[in-house]
């Protein structure tokens, strides 16, 4: 069994199942499998197999990292619910790691991170620039002034198109997503923050009923 | 066989997040050590109905909290628990998925067996938890999402005698409340209004009473109620309190009559020695009284579990999990959340079942 603190990172925020296992800061194992459906069935058996191959068991996990999106609502919930259940049973800290934080992991310089928001848009956040503002939704054409012409490098969805507007370079993530989530969880393990919760950035699609009730006569 | 087991149950298939610990297998029968139910009425109030995405969001962030609360109230640690049971369907898939994943996390982390439970089996087996009822018996499961008569022959053996071919009565109660400007959930609001109304003023249909068997339909009743309301509104620009009470009374009487007559037929067809009701609509006193009368006439024992165990809860899931556990059933970490999962796989698909299969 590995001797250092084990950290498990999980992510199902898009059409994939991904996990990574760290021993201390050393990457022991990871997988990233594309799949459009079935993550709820596949995630845990795949993690169990990864743990077994690494000579570890579930109860060896000391820290959990959960990818909280933004991304596919259902997919994000799969990871968040599993991580919260594991954290309860293992009495281990669970750290929610956003896709922005994960994609910027390993970079020294501030970077604009772009995640696919569908409908032709991106979710955007600047990571590493000190105080972090709330993510926003934009296209390269609608990039706000503070970001356009900022010279910021861009990582993620449509990175080249956004970089053309910021004047920075389009970069690739320093490491796979699940590994980044595990590394960020490891760093933040002493201050895990609130329990992992999905970062939706979009309201649930719901409208009030269109048929008003009748007037009540005296 | 007399080994005492403590089962942690989780439920999240509709708009209640629930966790419970049930102890069973000892001499004194089953005991509910804790039962936590967190409703979501406030979250859905503005939309006039349950919004699946809103429900799923709440479940994902509440299930572990409910499980912790259930363990704490039971005075137990996970190391005292023998298995984790979870609703694996049927229901709103986002919520079911959150429940199944949370249960998988707990089971894996604590090294406990995982047991997937059919939500309907949870309701149908509740009389065994509350009253120690033996097999076989007849159960009417009547709620906001379901309506069916089941002959319960064993923990995993159910025969469906009939069910709704369209809407469930609970949904019709909610719709009636919305149409008349009454609050949600509609069941208690409509029942309270009906108490002061004249059930004979409006001639509402009793759908499918002219048809043999135990199938039911409630969508036409909703339409009839809307039409009656609209006629009043067009004529006078609104409805009076008396109109509203009479509409509620007429609607409730129609539902009551259909359920009672179909229950009579189901009892006659099965000769069941006991008749139990389950589901939120079983809380309606007029309906419950009619069903009790029908049971009495058929010489069957009538069982109505306490309201908190009629509506969605996790004690019933823990109990149904215990019943499966005792049969040696275990599920793997690949347990699949299922939006559709009929209890009775033998009976032909119900009319009105979607192209993706029978809902329940």
Number of helices of chain A: 5
N- and C-termini, Cα separation of chain A: 77 Å
- Which series of helices and strands of chain B comes N to C? EEEHHEHEHEEEHHHEHEHEHH
Quick one: overall form of chain A? globular
CATH architecture classification name of the largest domain in chain B: 2-Layer Sandwich
Task: Describe the protein in words.
The complex is a heterodimer of chains A (218) and B (360). By secondary structure, chain A is an alpha/beta fold. Chain A is 27% helix and 26% strand. In chain A, helix 1 packs across helix 2. Chain B is of the alpha/beta class. Chain B has 2 domains: 169 residues, 2-Layer Sandwich (Nucleotidyltransferase, domain 5); 171 residues, ATPase, nucleotide binding domain (Nucleotidyltransferase, domain 5, 2-Layer Sandwich). Chain B contains 11 helices and 11 strands. A 5-stranded mixed beta sheet of chain B has the order 3-2-1-4-5, with helices on both faces. Chain B has a 5-stranded mixed beta sheet with strand order 8-7-6-10-11, sandwiched between helices. In chain B, helix 4 packs across helix 11. Chains A and B meet through helix 1, helix 2 and strand 11 of A and helix 2, helix 3, helix 7, strand 9 and helix 8 of B.
Which labels suit this protein?
heterodimer, A: alpha/beta, five-stranded mixed sheet, 27% helix, B: 360 residues, alpha/beta, Nucleotidyltransferase, domain 5, 2 domains
What's the gist of this structure?
Chain A has 218 residues and is an alpha/beta fold. Helix content of chain A is 27%, strand content 26%.
List the helices and strands and how they pair.
The complex is a heterodimer of chains A (218) and B (360).
Chain A: E1 6-11, E2 16-23, E3 26-34, H1 39-53, E4 61-67, H2 73-90, E5 94-97, H3 99-104, E6 111-116, E7 122-127, E8 136-138, E9 153-156, H4 159-166, E10 170-171, H5 177-187, E11 216-217
Parallel strand pairs in A: 1-4, 4-5, 6-9, 9-10
Antiparallel strand pairs in A: 1-2, 2-3, 6-7, 7-8
Helix pairs in contact in A: 1-2
Chain B: E1 5-11, E2 16-24, E3 31-39, H1 41-44, H2 52-74, E4 83-89, H3 93-110, E5 114-118, H4 119-131, E6 137-142, E7 147-154, E8 157-163, H5 169-179, H6 186-194, H7 219-236, E9 239-240, H8 241-270, E10 274-278, H9 285-297, E11 301-303, H10 307-310, H11 315-326
């Amino acid at each position: 069994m590995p001797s250092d603190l084990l950290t498990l990172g999980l992510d199902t925020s898009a059409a994939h199942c991904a996990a990574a296992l760290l021993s201390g800061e050393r990457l022991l194992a990871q997988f990233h499998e594309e799949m459009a459906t079935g993550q709820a069935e596949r995630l845990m058996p795949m993690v169990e197999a990864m743990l077994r191959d690494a000579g570890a068991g579930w109860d060896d996990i000391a820290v959990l990292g959960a990818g909280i999106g933004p991304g596919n609502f259902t997919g994000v919930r799969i990871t968040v619910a599993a991580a919260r259940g594991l954290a309860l049973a293992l009495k281990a800290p669970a750290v929610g790691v956003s896709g922005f934080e994960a994609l910027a992991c390993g970079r020294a310089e501030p970077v604009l991170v772009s995640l696919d928001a569908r409908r032709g848009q991106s979710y955007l956040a600047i990571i590493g620039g000190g105080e972090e503002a709330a993510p926003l939704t934009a296209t390269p054409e609608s990039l706000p002034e503070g970001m356009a012409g900022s010279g910021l490098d861009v990582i993620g969805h449509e990175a080249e198109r956004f970089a053309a507007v910021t004047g920075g370079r389009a970069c690739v993530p320093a490491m796979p997503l699940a590994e980044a989530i595990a590394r960020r969880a490891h760093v933040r393990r002493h201050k895990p923050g609130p329990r992992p919760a999905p970062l939706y950035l979009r309201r649930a699609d719901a409208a009030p009923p269109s048929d008003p009730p009748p007037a009540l006569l005296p | 066989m007399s080994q005492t087991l403590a089962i942690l149950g989780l439920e999240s298939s509709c708009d209640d997040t629930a966790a419970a610990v049930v102890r069973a297998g000892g001499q004194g029968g089953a005991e509910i050590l804790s039962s936590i139910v967190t409703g979501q009425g406030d979250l859905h109030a503005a939309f006039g109905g349950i919004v699946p995405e809103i429900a799923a969001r709440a479940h994902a962030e509440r299930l572990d909290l409910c499980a912790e609360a259930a363990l704490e109230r039971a005075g137990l640690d996970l190391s005292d628990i023998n298995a984790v049971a979870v609703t694996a369907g049927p229901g709103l898939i986002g919520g079911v998925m959150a429940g199944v994943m949370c249960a998988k996390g707990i089971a894996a982390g604590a090294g406990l067996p995982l047991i997937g439970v059919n939500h309907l089996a949870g309701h149908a087996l509740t009389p065994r938890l509350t009253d120690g009822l033996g097999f076989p018996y007849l159960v009417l499961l009547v709620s906001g999402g379901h309506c069916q008569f089941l002959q319960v022959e064993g923990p995993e053996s159910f025969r469906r005698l009939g069910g709704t071919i369209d809407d469930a009565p609970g949904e019709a109660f909610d719709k009636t409340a919305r149409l008349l400007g009454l609050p949600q959930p509609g069941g208690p609001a409509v029942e309270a209004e009906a108490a002061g109304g004249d059930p004979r003023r409006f001639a509402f249909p009793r759908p499918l009473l002219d048809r043999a068997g135990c199938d039911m339909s409630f969508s036409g009743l909703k339409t009839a109620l809307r039409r009656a309301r609209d006629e009043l509104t067009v004529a006078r620009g609104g409805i009076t309190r008396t109109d509203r009470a009479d509409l509620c009374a007429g609607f409730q009487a129609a539902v009551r009559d259909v359920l009672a007559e179909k229950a009579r037929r189901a009892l006659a067809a099965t000769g069941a020695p006991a008749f139990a009701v389950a589901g939120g609509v079983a809380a309606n006193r007029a309906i419950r009284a009619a069903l009790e009368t029908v049971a009495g006439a058929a010489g069957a024992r009538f069982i109505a579990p306490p309201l908190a165990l009629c509506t969605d809860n996790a004690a019933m899931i823990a109990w149904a999990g215990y019943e499966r556990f005792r049969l040696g059933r275990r599920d793997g970490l690949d347990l699949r959340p299922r939006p559709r999962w009929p209890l009775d796989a033998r009976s032909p698909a119900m009319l009105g079942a979607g192209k993706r299969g029978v809902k329940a």
